[in-house]
Amino acid sequence: MDNDYFSIDAILAENQKIQCTFKVDIPDMGHLAGGSDRDIKSLTKAPIPIWLAYIMLFSDWADFTIPSPFGTRVRNALKAEPRSVKLSNLVGAGGLWYGFGKLVMDILSEDQANGISEVLTKAFKGRLLEVIDQAQHFAALGPAGGGGPSTDSAQSFREGLDGTERELFALAQESAKRMKRWHEGNDKARR
Amino acid sequence: MALPQSLRTSVTPLELELIASEHLIEIVPLITMEKTAFISGAYGPLRPPAKCRIPLWMATNLKLKKKCHIVPPEWLSVDFLQEQLTRETSRPEFSRLPFRFAEIAKVILDVASDDVQNADKIKSLLKDLREARQAKSRDGLQKLDHSELSLPNLCSMEINEIRPFFIQSMGILTQLVREPSAE
């Protein structure tokens, strides 16, 4: 998830669409808006992916609003209880909410970018502890277990994890599993 | 030579055990041996029943062949560990422990539990100590910052356990936080 040209995470995150309002007429590009028009007239709204939107905003051909995954409703939900928001619902399964937010932040002006950065960091920190706890809990169970003892809220939290959080979950679970295996192993034979 | 993905994130516990096995411990030998040169140094001579300091790997080897008795280090005793446990549970900081205590304790308890007094009690004390310190590192996670995090007196095994996801989380935080200040 860098600005690295080759980063796969950045490419995936950039695939998200945002709503843009075109300011100028663009002939022959109607298929971008998904409609049957031949041209795009100014003041038409169309969803376009961020990698395209970036250039359009820079060249001042379009305006855009803060997309819904970072709208007021989501922000208030995160402020109330970061762990109860399902981030994967906001950006589609396997989506990268944090990556998307970072890209939006880059395009925006200073104050709005600060606001979004606050939302992102607070959400991340709030959810991180829960991610780690669940990861260590799941390291304790064998590969077959994992369905029974978890309560409903724990399971729905796991389903709502964003892509970056899933990586962290896997890392933490892996190291916890290794430690457990080492502590309980007693290979006198090996020595 | 490329490492498989699972090994890239951190050192394995077995590797840490190998590194810790270089540590010198005292033994009571049951055989005689002249001063012998090994790659890491010359050890011996072994003259029973005098005690001698040799590396842990050599001590485990001799012990498994029943050629010595291991003398547990002073910190591997019920009194010391109990005191450390009370200190650990009463203060918010980590207490000072030998850096590789987890690995050395495990090796000694595995091969020479008969040489250690109250081996079971020591095992349970070590477990409690480990859990208390783990709880503290969880709290440290709350204070995670993008620029630095200081957890003094963490021991080698614990550092290795938390390293992968701590570093990744700090990386993510760096990207989320730094952006506006770079404007």
From TrEMBL, chain A:
Q: Which family does it belong to?
A: Belongs to the GINS3/PSF3 family.
Q: What is this protein called?
A: DNA replication complex GINS protein PSF3
Which residues does the UniProt record annotate as the domain DNA replication complex GINS protein PSF3 N-terminal? 6-56
**Which terms does the UniProt entry file under GO BP?**
mitotic DNA replication initiation
Q: Does the keyword Chloroplast apply?
A: no
InterPro entries hit by this protein: GINS_A (IPR021151), GINS_bundle-like_dom_sf (IPR036224), GINS_Psf3 (IPR010492), GINS_Psf3_sf (IPR038437), PSF3_N (IPR055221)
Where the record annotates domain GINS subunit, the positions are: 73-183
Give the CC-aspect GO terms.
GINS complex
Whom does it interact with, and what assembly results?
A: Component of the GINS complex.
- Kindly give the PANTHER family that the UniProt entry links to this protein: DNA REPLICATION COMPLEX GINS PROTEIN PSF3
The listed locations are:
Nucleus
Keyword Nucleus carried by entry: yes
Q: Which Pfam families match?
A: PSF3_N, Sld5
Q: Which Gene3D superfamilies does the annotation name?
A: 1.20.58.2050
Annotated keywords: DNA replication, Nucleus
**SUPFAM superfamilies per the UniProt record, alphabetical:** GINS helical bundle-like, PriA/YqbF domain
Function, please? The GINS complex plays an essential role in the initiation of DNA replication.
TrEMBL record, chain B:
In what residue span(s) does the DNA replication complex GINS protein PSF2 N-terminal domain sit? 12-71
Q: Show the SUPFAM superfamilies listed in the entry.
A: GINS helical bundle-like (SSF158573), PriA/YqbF domain (SSF160059)
Q: What is its main location?
A: nucleus
Residues in GINS subunit domain copies: 75-175
Q: Where in the cell is it found?
A: Nucleus
Recite the UniProt keywords alphabetically: Chromosome partition, DNA replication, Nucleus
Single GO cellular component annotation? GINS complex
Please list which residues make up the signal peptide.
Answer: none
State one Pfam family annotation: Sld5
The processes (GO biological process) annotated in the record are: chromosome segregation; DNA replication; double-strand break repair via break-induced replication
Keyword Cell wall biogenesis/degradation (UniProt): no
For this protein, the record's InterPro entries field holds: GINS_A (IPR021151), GINS_bundle-like_dom_sf (IPR036224), GINS_Psf2 (IPR007257), PSF2_N (IPR056784)
Q: How does it assemble?
A: Component of the GINS complex.
Regarding protein family, the annotation reads: Belongs to the GINS2/PSF2 family.
The protein in question is named DNA replication complex GINS protein PSF2
Question: Upper taxonomic classification of the species?
Answer: Eukaryota, Fungi, Dikarya, Basidiomycota, Agaricomycotina
